[in-house]
């Protein structure tokens, strides 16, 4: 059909505009949703990890040989390496209670391989017993009076991973289940630590299983892979417990550097990139084998004021801090977030040899546990407190360290003149005299208390002590039962008498 010339001339500008708009939309990537007066919103995040509310069958994690689970062994009958580790301080007698200096409250005791949890008062009496439906491994009393419980649930893929959890639950003080999350599949599992955030979501540490082919493609030396063909990355997921939706996640797999394979995308000078993790760091077993669990993050803390996450790598004897203000997309990359580094490390401390800016003499941490920021209102608020386990060959005894990371005027962490993340000097250290020295070679923890004292958990042997700033022991406790073997405690915490979660437990 032929249109009049005058009509064509009138419509031509409109047609050109419409064609231009169509061409632009056809050739450009799909725009994300925009809210008036704000920047474009990111597309909805979808995690590949599956979350359910069915934790399946109960599991009990096997303790190391000789620790309490029938048939138990006395320390001198344990395998020689464990026997040696247990010998330091194992026979020290408990001290009398110093009622004038002990912090008031109740200590939550959860021995490994014991179904029940216990509240113990300052007289060392059990005033309450409770348990979760699943075999609880780590319970926290929440500010709302409820209990956050991390229970043992695993698939065979992760059965050799010390510290696996897999099931997270929240109970009311009366024992009513509020929600349950199964964070355990053949491809990932929650382990060690979990935190409930103020927004109601939970942060959980996870292992992510991949094949050794993937890690070799990222520059891992093929001689440094596990025989079973698996490799585990440590990561963090944030989950809405009511919708079972993962709303944010971070993985070490996206923040690697290596100087082994020049043909890989992440090849570079390790010392030039302290914000990245050297993919060829490795911890071998006593037999010389490489385990799929590579970094073994055993503790996590969250700083809501700074929106930062602290992770503690036991195998690498180092802590890392990452930026939680990133979007899930930015957490994969190297830019974005409050500190502009995406999901890269914004701070690390404890073992600068890991990023080729130090030697073994510069090492500060030895297979540490329970790394955390000291809470507001407590002595040392804002400092970092760590149970420093020790190492049988280099330093066969345990301490607790407290330090303050150096920051600039923008609150960004800074590297000292020596090229390493500081500090060199500690704010405080609990390093007991030889007569009170002990060696807890695994698990364990420390907690700063309201009166300025520090609660120290000697995980190997299930002992707890409260010490003053000067190192004096004012309260000493050991869990024992009718099983003739040492017990173990992942972590113990003291709660004030007026804590909302206490009243319903001891009534």
What tags apply to this protein structure?
single chain, 507 residues, mainly beta, Neuraminidase, 4-stranded antiparallel beta sheet, 5 helices, 26 strands, 9% helix, 28% strand, globular, disordered N terminus
Structure in words:
The chain is mainly beta. It has a single domain, classed as Neuraminidase (6 Propeller). The protein has five helices and 26 strands. A four-stranded antiparallel beta sheet has the order 3-2-1-26, with no helix packed on it. It has a four-stranded antiparallel beta sheet with strand order 4-5-6-7, with no helix packed on it. The chain has a four-stranded antiparallel beta sheet with strand order 8-9-10-11. The longest helix is centred in the N-terminal third of the chain and has 23 residues. The chain is globular and about 65 Å long. The N terminus is likely disordered.
